[in-house]
């Protein structure tokens, strides 16, 4: 299973960060229209506001923008806000859709002056297209090669000034020459519960859902710091409230609804808990290799590594060590289990070396 398969697996989970078709349709309706409506990401929002205000004052095109961060934090939304703030159209595509330099040349040559080109999953663009993008971003021109072999001719094609907004979940995979051509780089952080509560209240108003403060807090606490997940959980809680309650989302209703959908109070779902239970009950808290752990939960290695592990590590429930995966004391406490005596502590290799989980096994 590759990254695409893992992402597809994630899209099927209620707390997965990937967006399915239903999410995309709802997000379009809930999406903020300008920076004033955008909730959270205060540092990026303020910096981006300065960039756009200055560009408008000069009457020019905004600098190229690179947005990095986990899925579901608002990168696509910000790209649309950039276009709206500049009063220009937006063209949306993705790295995997551009397999050849000719694909990129066709898109670039059809842009109008000042238009925003949003390129999602920038790190997955093909190398020939990436090299063409260097010249397009810097000099606003591309060389289109016509013919093959000794008779091939490079025809320079001038492009109107445009703004590229690149989005990536893996900024480390971008080559330095590409990163250096962006005038502004913003890293999207996970949301605090209070910010997610504001997102939920705003979305509830747009979806005509009656929700109280405690109900919004309950959903926010299980949303893994991600607005997309918060909106998805809100829709599922709304369904439960309409069918099994009086339509009002309270803390009790939200808790019962998310219990039905197997999302616990910390945001873990069935797969997350299965990984922890296997690690604790079958292997005594570890260390255990990733492949062995994947077999124990009946999943592919990539699914455990790409879908379940990032959140478990971020929550401090699991640690990666040179000898394998190790459960932390917080993991034992979360599942209500007592660690056996002599269990290795979090962040150690189990052999007393005290090495952090920088390596995989």
Automatic annotation (TrEMBL):
Its EC number is 3.6.4.-. It comes from the Bacteria. GO terms for molecular function: ATP binding; ATP hydrolysis activity; four-way junction DNA binding; four-way junction helicase activity. Coiled coil: none annotated. Residues 265-361 are annotated as: Head domain (RuvB-H). Its main location: cytoplasm. Residues 192-262 are annotated as: Small ATPAse domain (RuvB-S). It is found in: Cytoplasm. DNA binds at residues 301, 320, 325. The keyword Oxidoreductase does not apply. Pfam families: AAA_lid_4 (PF17864), RuvB_N (PF05496), WHD_RuvB (PF05491). Mg(2+) binds at residue 76. Residues 344-355 have a biased composition (Gly residues). One of its GO terms (cellular component) is Holliday junction resolvase complex. Keywords: ATP-binding, Cytoplasm, DNA damage, DNA recombination, DNA repair, DNA-binding, Helicase, Hydrolase, Nucleotide-binding. HAMAP family: DNA_HJ_migration_RuvB (MF_00016). Has 3 domains, the large (RuvB-L) and small ATPase (RuvB-S) domains and the C-terminal head (RuvB-H) domain. The head domain binds DNA, while the ATPase domains jointly bind ATP, ADP or are empty depending on the state of the subunit in the translocation cycle. During a single DNA translocation step the structure of each domain remains the same, but their relative positions change. The RuvA-RuvB-RuvC complex processes Holliday junction (HJ) DNA during genetic recombination and DNA repair, while the RuvA-RuvB complex plays an important role in the rescue of blocked DNA replication forks via replication fork reversal (RFR). RuvA specifically binds to HJ cruciform DNA, conferring on it an open structure. The RuvB hexamer acts as an ATP-dependent pump, pulling dsDNA into and through the RuvAB complex. RuvB forms 2 homohexamers on either side of HJ DNA bound by 1 or 2 RuvA tetramers; 4 subunits per hexamer contact DNA at a time. This is Holliday junction branch migration complex subunit RuvB.
